[in-house]
Write a structure and sequence with these properties.
Layout (H helix, E strand, L loop, with lengths): L39 H25 L35 E9 L4 H18 L34 E7 H5 L43 E7 L2 H14 L4 E12 L28 H7 L6 H4 L11 E10 L1 H4 L4 H8 L36 H5 L10 E2 L2 E7 L5 E11 L2 H4 L1 H10 L6 E11 L32
Antiparallel strand pairs: 1-3, 1-4, 2-3, 2-9, 4-7, 5-8, 5-9, 6-8, 7-8
Helix pairs in contact: 2-4
The structure holds the ligand C=CC1=C(C)c2cc3[nH]c(cc4nc(cc5[nH]c(cc1n2)c(C)c5CCC(=O)O)C(CCC(=O)O)=C4C)c(C)c3C=C and fe (ii) ion (FE2).
Amino acid sequence: MSAPTDPHDDPTPGLAAGRAADAPDVATSAPTGRGPAMSRRALLGLGGGIAAGVAAGFGLARATGVAEPATAAAPVSSGPGTYAFTGTHQAGIVTPAQDRLYLAAFDVTTTSRDELVALLRRWTTIAARLTQGLSAGPYGPASGPYDAPPDDTGEAADVPPAGLTITFGFGRSLFVGTPGPDGSPGTDRFGLAGKLPGGLVELPHFAVDNLEPARSDGDLVVQACADDPQVAVHAIRNLSRAAFGAATIRWTQLGYGRTSSTSTSQRTPRNLFGFKDGTANVKAEETDALDEHVWVPAGAAAQDTTDSTWLTGGSYLVARRIRMRIETWDRTSLREQEGLVGRTKGEGAPLSGGQEHTEPDFARTGRGGAPLIPVDSHVRLAHPDQNAGVRMLRRGYNFTDGNDSLGRLDAGLFFLAFVRDPRTHYIPMQTQLSSQDGLMEYLEHTGSGLFAVPPGVPDGSLPLGADGTPAATDDGPFVGEALFA
Ligand SMILES: C=CC1=C(C)c2cc3[nH]c(cc4nc(cc5[nH]c(cc1n2)c(C)c5CCC(=O)O)C(CCC(=O)O)=C4C)c(C)c3C=C
Ligand SMILES: [Fe+2]
């Protein structure tokens, strides 16, 4: 290759700056969990600074053939369209639910605890960068040593951060391995069995389960949410790439169209049955309810026979791929549909009367003394009154994965919920729904995962490189670090 005439030998800023310079003019509506908003001008200035630094580093690398980090730029915290990566809790839980999801469960392939820790460190740095609109590595997709693969795959180079959040979790098999078909115990590959949190149980079989192993479980989970599907896919792709040699993808799920609101400022979206979904969800503004139903309290570890203090301030993520029998539903009368849900299809109001956010009155009866909200309706059976006061933070997505051999859509709801303990906040409710909810006739659960979600990486703790952006080190903090202490 002729070096002097090759355009790559003129390391101009642009892509090397990462995606920060491409952020939108105004901050997106993102009222919580954000660092100070920056104007585009400020960000462009910052991006230019980073670009100059990276370009300088690039020149050095090209001359010497050694990958040198970029130099001199102001620190990056967050900008328009971004949510802070660090904090007490991981982002992507109470963060206003974005429109798109790409979730991946991984099997850890290395048996080395040190390599697992190194992977989590790499993932932490990359996630901190991507969520701030930067490239996965310091050079970006079109810069860096010419004879090495770029440190970012590039498909999100020209789009804004789109509110990307990346949330990590640990499956039961990471702690105790996978039991054999004969019920023999799995292998504790990483010396973590003594840290298994009590809520990370094997979920029981529920009546509507038709689970596919290839869509279930996993040692690790990464949930990427954004308002642009390409940004979410880019995140998982680059994290998966960084996992090479240590973990492989077991299953993934793409979701379009959120089926919940996690902030009172958000419009209630609709699921594929055409009903408003997320009306009675736990919202970010309900801090007492979050403490009661979503975050693992300090006292939880005392109930465990293991040492699970590392999960304090974290949560559990329940993931269920629920196929919906769309074609059958579409031939069902409006009366039947509303009776099965327990709410009106138009406004989402309870059948006992009022508007969308009116509390349901389950005692109210109509003609013949029958309850206006049927006894086998979904909202009655999922309501806290029927579930020992339990609530959950739902954060699911619609999915459509082609069709089956009979021409029926393989579509449904990828149910995601964050709870403080699945033993009290998921299993009893799912058991009740599976056996009594009229809606179940239209549902089939085809995938399942349960993950412990550690608390966030503390603010201000991540090491920064010479260019002021999160940089990889051998000893920096990482998501779930307390688990390995
Ligand atoms: C085990 C938990 C739940 C599963 C699984 C689940 C599946 C599921 N839900 C709908 C549609 C709606 N759900 C609604 C409310 C609602 N659902 C759950 C739990 C599960 N849903 C709860 C806890 C609630 C809130 C109950 C309350 O406090 O009133 C609603 C009504 C609107 C709303 O409040 O969100 C709809 C509609 C589908 C289609 C589905 C599986 C595919
Ligand atoms: Fe529901």
